[in-house]
Specification:
NT_sf; elongated; two-stranded antiparallel sheet; 10% strand; RNA-binding; disordered N terminus; 23 helices; transferase; CCA tRNA nucleotidyltransferase 2; alpha+beta; 599 residues
């Protein structure tokens, strides 16, 4: 029986056993493993952030540049010399090792991948994946349950996710909830391919073989629970982490054809950490064979999950830049063939430009606190601005916005995401003519608005010969209706509207000029005006007259006239912010009486 070492809260990593020659690009997985590495405080050279040249856009941001932008690229990457376990991690690992002792198992347990990487970078992680050397994950779960039963303890929860080779899910994964945290359990594996198939034959493998089958070298590190050591079995994971490189353990093209989703994962991790993508990796990612495999082998839901993680992360601009640069933008955000008008060749570059402008605005100090959900959908809304007027025909011949198609079919996101982004686009267009009047606090230029023709007619009826109506009533009414539609996403819609003012002259060649400091000032002025008008949370304000009272006063039994009266009364309420319910009802009776006399 192999005895395990006790796990302490602080675990020292021993010094490297030997050095690796930088010229050694791919190492033979069958070579003897290098087990223990110590991560010292090492520095990396500065990395140039990827930029796209086919779209011209300018950011006038002198006053903002020191405070905003994506995660700055560090001049060095410092790795922790020690892996520091949290109390919960220590308890989880003690439980797992106790199972080995109780069941008398000659088994090695290793934490694989991202948890090890993040711990060495000094970041906390709750993504614990356990790799097992001589049994499957489900078999180990049975042993763990046996151990819990011996202590009269119940399982908090467990499940087994079956393998699905057709979608590049080659491995069964067992999951168990331990101390209120879900832990994944899989066996170490190696993969063999037949000459005419890209679906591998799975079998138990060594830790070294498993490490070489991982997506990236920085994700191929193990933390051995039995020995308390970090294992770098590709013999370059630590070096690539120190130097900030995104590299595959095996040749990139073979790695991507094995699981094409790894292309998107490479981009996501590169953007997340500000690391550079290896040149061979970029060449493989952009090749036709890999792009076809990504489109055909990977479910749209898994693609959408990766994109969501990119947009929600701290490097969305870099991620989308890579997607465009590697010719993956149109594949990921696939549009129907009937899209009208047909997107321009540089749509990816335009999307990146809008995205970067929105990202910089959102990062500006003093611009308000946006929730994670508002930030995520704001970035999607900016990125898809070039498609806001593009539609396609569905099976019934109905014109549908392509943004809806991207969310529901290309990325398999929830319907509410599509609806919110389309609503942001629509509200942004309606916001544009209101921005200058809100800045100037007057109603100039608001005589005619296509989306508010009926509202303006109601306002004229209310304001005619009525000295009680405030001078700012028209702008208050129009803005109030707008905010009641978009609700707490109105600030996102306002920012999106300001981005639309950046388009100049010839959009076909992507000439965009973003004066971000001016946009920031405009946003803050408009936001302050909306606050002065008392329109904060206007969507939560209840009508002064409810539907039952409308039916009684207007002597209606139902029908479209109720909706018409509701809109008129809301217009009155917005035009008279200090008006009471009785005053609103009196006005309604007057209007009704005038109508009856006219008839």
């Amino acid at each position: 029986m192999r005895l395990s070492l006790p796990i302490n809260t602080l675990i020292n990593l021993p010094k490297p056993r030997f050095l690796i020659s930088p010229s050694s690009r791919y190492l033979n997985p069958n070579r003897s493993p290098t087990l223990a590495f110590r991560a010292s405080s090492l520095r990396r050279a500065p990395v140039v952030s990827p930029r796209l040249c086919c779209c011209c856009y300018w950011f006038s941001t002198e006053a903002m540049m020191t405070n905003v932008g994506e995660q700055s690229i560090p001049s060095s990457v410092e790795l922790k010399e020690n892996i520091e376990l949290t109390e919960k991690e220590r308890k989880i690992f003690d439980r797992l090792l106790s199972t080995l002792r109780y069941c008398n198992l000659d088994t090695q347990l290793r934490v694989a991948g991202g948890w090890v990487r993040d711990k060495l970078l000094g970041k906390e992680s709750d993504d614990i994946d356990i790799a097992i050397d001589n049994m499957s994950g489900s078999e180990f779960l049975d042993k763990f349950k046996e151990y819990l039963s011996s202590r009269d303890e119940e399982v908090q929860g467990d499940t087994v996710i079956e393998r699905n080779p057709d979608q590049s899910k080659h491995l069964e994964t067992a999951k168990m909830r331990i101390y209120d945290q879900w832990i994944d359990f899989v066996n170490l594996r190696s993969e063999e391919y037949t000459e005419n198939s890209r679906i591998p034959t799975m079998k138990f493998g060594t830790a070294k073989e498993d490490a070489y089958r991982r997506d990236l070298t920085i994700n191929s590190l193990f933390y051995n629970l039995n020995s308390g050591l970090v294992e770098d079995l590709t013999e370059r994971g630590i070096d690539d982490l120190k130097s900030g490189k995104i590299v595959t353990p095996l040749p990139a093209k073979a790695t991507f054809l094995d699981d094409p989703l790894r292309v998107l994962r490479a981009i996501r991790f590169g953007a997340r950490f500000g690391f550079t993508l290896d040149e061979e990796l970029k060449e493989a990612a952009s090749c036709e064979e890999v792009r076809v495999a990504l489109g055909e082998k990977i479910s749209r839901e898994r693609i959408g999950n990766e994109i969501d993680l990119m947009i929600s992360g701290n490097g969305p601009v870099s991620a989308v830049t890579y997607l465009s640069e590697l010719k993956l933008f149109r594949l990921v955000f696939a549009l129907p063939s009937s899209a009208d008008p047909s997107p321009s060749e540089n749509c990816g570059s335009l999307s990146q430009a809008y995205l970067e402008a929105m990202w910089r605005l959102l990062q500006t100090p003093g611009l308000g606190n946006f929730s994670g959900e508002q930030r995520r959908l704001a970035l999607y809304a900016a990125m898809f601005l070039p498609f806001r007027k593009t539609v396609y025909k569905d099976n019934k011949g109905k014109s549908i916005p392509v943004v809806n198609h991207i969310f529901k079919f290309s990325m398999k996101r929830k319907t509410s995401d599509a609806e919110t982004v389309m609503n942001i686009h629509q509200t942004a267009e309606r916001f544009r003519p209101l921005v200058c009047p809100l800045e100037a606090k007057n109603d100039v230029g608001l005589e005619k608005l296509d989306w508010a023709t009926v509202i303006l007619e109601h306002w004229k009826t209310i304001s005619h010969n009525d000295a009680e109506v405030p001078a700012t009533s028209k702008i208050r009414v129009l803005t109030g209706f707008l905010l009641r539609d978009i609700k707490d996403f109105w600030r996102v819609a306002l920012l999106t509207s300001l981005l639309l003012s950046a388009t100049v002259d010839d959009q076909e060649i992507g000439h965009l000029n973003f004066q971000l400091e001016k946009m920031r000032e405009t946003y803050l002025t408009v936001e302050a005006t909306i606050h002065e008008l008392g329109l904060d949370n206007i969507w939560d304000v209840k009508p002064l007259v409810n539907g039952r009272e409308i039916m009684q006063i207007a002597e209606l039994k139902g029908g479209s006239l109720i909706r018409e009266w509701q809109q008129k009364l809301l217009t009155w309420q917005l035009a008279n912010p200090n008006g009471t319910s009785e005053e609103c009802k009196d006005w309604m009776r007057e209007v009704k009486a005038k109508r009856q006399r006219t008839e």
